[in-house]
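Title: Prediction job returns without error message
Component: structure pipeline
Severity: low
Priority: P3
Assignee: unassigned

Description:
Job completed but the reporter wants confirmation the result is attached to the right record. Sequence as submitted:
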Amino acid sequence: MVYWIIAGILIIALAAEFIRSYVSVGITRQSYQNKKIPQAFHGYRILVLSDLHGKSFGSGNHRLTEKIIPLQPDLIVMAGDMIDKHQTNLRSFFALTDALVGICPVVFALGNHEIRLPKNVMEELKHGLSERGVHWLDNAKQTMIGENGQIELYGLTVDLNQYKGLNRTFDQSAVLDAEGIRGRLGAPNEEAFRMLIAHLPTLFEAYAEWGADLVIGGHMHGGLVRLPFIGGVLSPEIRFFPKYDAGVFHSGESTMFVSRGLGNGKWKFRFFNSGEILLIELQSIVEV
């Protein structure tokens, strides 16, 4: 009888955690230092939203907005898969966008799901974001000017053939490298601090070799299930224990932040892995 009671309690606890992970959103705060960051951008707050997949946290996503406003971001980055490939009604997403552009500038980079949207939905998305003043970074650059310095912000659109789980004929020899990135974005400004939004984190070494100082990625959904001391268990590409599941990673002089994302994608579940709003505060270093 005792064992049945323990089993029942365990099942209820696991079910409660499953629901919590599915509906809740946490805030992860990170600080990033680099001597190339201009003094004018010291304390600059970048808020990252990723992998919403068309999900709504309350009417018009008001639960997200209520969490974001007190954080006082200077820039909001939408880092891909904000829309699901099956999403045809953009009303809730545009309601969220309307609220966000009233807080600070917003930039939008594409993930694999946006690339696969029907043409008419893609046009509606692009037009709707442009109409709202969102900066659309599809293999494009935006320069942010500050006193005595600037930041170069790039948005890289990674082709579907780079996503292993989406490409049955994946060819390792065709993986995007630094030269391929240079062909899309051009050579980086060596004098400026360079940020790169790239939805797919598995190409981090190529991003670093190209010249990104700071990379912002997503796609992995935190590994779907997260285990203590281990991290993410499974990637959306059906890879166990993905290297770049979530958090902070380093390659040479480059740093990458990978968001756990907000939505659920085709798997429709998260476990010990609530949705995440990522806030990165830039810190300049004054050399004496």
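Comment from assignee: result matches the submitted record. The chain has seven helices and 14 strands.
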